[in-house]
Specification:
The chain is mainly α. Helix content is 57%, strand content 0%. The chain has one domain (36-161). InterPro entries: Melanoregulin.
Length: 179
């Protein structure tokens, strides 16, 4: 009769497991394996977890996982900063939230959203040099198109994160835009 009826017995273990599988650093993100880039990160985590923690391979994979997560956070932070500067202070998080239930608002917007996303990649430094376009940001651009704010977003991104010759990154927004 030694059954454990405590519903909170595994709570800490569940949180630790969720955090480990949390690819976007958003607690309980159920969409972590929905996009290709999510699967890549998930596979890295699976491989790392099969290695001995003291091994050089484990340390290298752990660093790569950390770096990829930090890059994602940085990109999301840039998008949020631009959205807030456009007046979407309260809506920024919800505009950036993409789940497996998210849909494109209008199929005719898909082509325009892709074009804007490619233009952001090629003409700004909102994404790092090695960044592969994420499906998540296609949904965000679609939302901006629906709000008639996509062109303003691109202009703001061009100003805040201009493409610099030689691939230098523009990590800081000009002081005039921060006021």
């Amino acid at each position: 009769l030694c059954s454990n009826n405590n519903p909170y017995a595994s709570f800490g273990a569940t949180l630790a497991r969720d955090e480990e599988q949390n690819l976007w650093s958003t607690p309980h993100d159920v969409t972590h394996t929905e996009a290709d880039d999510d699967r890549v990160l998930y596979n890295m985590i699976v491989v790392r977890n099969q290695l001995d923690k003291d091994s050089e391979e484990w340390q290298k994979l752990n660093y790569d996982i950390y770096t990829l997560r930090q890059t994602r956070k940085e990109v999301r932070s840039r998008w949020k900063h631009i959205l807030e500067n456009l007046g979407f202070q309260k809506e920024a998080d919800s505009l950036l939230s993409v789940t497996k239930l998210s849909i494109i608002s209008d199929s005719q917007n898909m082509s325009k959203a892709r074009d804007i996303l490619l233009k952001l990649l090629e003409e700004t430094n909102i994404f790092p040099t090695s960044w592969e376009l994420s499906e998540r940001y296609l949904f965000v651009v679609d939302r901006l198109i629906a709000l008639d704010a996509a062109d303003e977003f691109f202009k703001m991104a061009s100003t805040m994160y201009p493409k610099r010759p030689g691939g230098d990154r523009a990590d800081e927004a000009p002081r005039a835009l921060q006021s």
